[in-house]
Design a protein that fits this description.
The complex is a heterodimer. Chain A is mainly beta. Chain A is built from no helices and 13 strands. Chain B is mainly β. Chain B has no helices and eleven strands. In chain B, a hairpin with a 4-residue loop joins strand 7 and strand 8 (about 80-85). Classes of the chains: A mainly beta, B mainly beta. The interface of A and B includes residues 36 and 48 of A.
Chain lengths: ~110, ~120
Amino acid sequence: DIVMTQSPDSLAVSLGERATINCKSSQSAFNSGNNKNYLAWYQHKPGQPPKLLIHSASTREFGVPGRFSGSGSGTDFTLTISSLQAEDVALYYCQHYLDSWAFGQGTKVEIK
Amino acid sequence: EVQLLESGGGLVQPGGSLRVSCAASGFTFSYYAMSWVRQSPGKGLEWVSAISGSGDRTYYADSVKGRFTIARDNSKNTLLLQMNSLRAEDTAVYFCVREARGYSYAEVWGQGTTVTVSS
């Protein structure tokens, strides 16, 4: 089974500062057939369904603010919020979706 | 507007059965693979099951294999999850999810329906 490990489990960042979340996969998410990494990021706020932020490791979904960016390849990935806003307080999950689905345990982002 | 609306959640005793449904609208349902994802209280997201657009291929997490059955009715734009032999650890919010065509990430999520397994 694929195991996704996020770090840290939680982080507190001042408004306007950068937040960085790491995600490590036990198996490569890279599909050599189309040169894409099958890695997505979701934002989850209480009482709401998760929201897709980024797919293919670095492609922002339509309507997602530009302060959210994804990077990485293979087994190591990063989600960066360049300038944290109050509305970004949430849980963030990475997901491996090559062949099967696996989610990370989640990272809680709070305001310092 | 693309919408997924789950229903059928509730309280059930351990060992019991429950069927949850997801009504899809705003898109050509049969074009998309669909999945169920759950979130247990205080825990993260867990993929449960998936089904191809035509319904001929189904997939299950080891934790539910042999107990849960996923199905779809493309004539009624409905996704189903039949849950048997329910356990306390199946208590969760169950989300209906539309997969992105060709890539399978979770593109659209329903609001979720709550299943509680307790005596």
